[in-house]
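User: Teach me something about this protein's shape.
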Amino acid sequence: MFDSPRAISWHGAGPMTVPDWSGEAAAALLPGSNYVAFMVKGEQQAVYVGFNPNPEPCSASLPPPGLSMQWKRLVDTARLPPQDVDLEAGELLHAEYVVAPGAAIMLETVPRPAAPPPQARAAVQQASSVYRRMGDA
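Assistant: First, the predicted structure itself:
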């Protein structure tokens, strides 16, 4: 799955932040201050694992997944079985993910779906205009 070289990076809840290893932010009761995550990135794929020990939900900013890639949810321990683990058709994500209190998540990168060819976009636009005119009638 991961060939060398690989990189491991640590992340906090905010964009481009690292965890507060000192505990000062947690002592100040800052939202999401205890959130900690790590990403293991290979040449072709990455995995992101995050933990929210806080008593409230935490909006975690996800690191950039890589060129032409996006994050897919594999595991969210806050979901009820069998939706807590979805290795095949997990939800595709964007720049943030709300992690429930006391939950852990695991995401992986997958190729971003290709844009439809220009002919398909033109057909969709034409069909949309036809349906719009039908609705006006």
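Now, about its shape. Residues 11 and 18 are 4 Å apart (CA to CA). The mean pLDDT is 82. If you'd like, I can walk through any region in more detail.
User: That's plenty for now, thanks!
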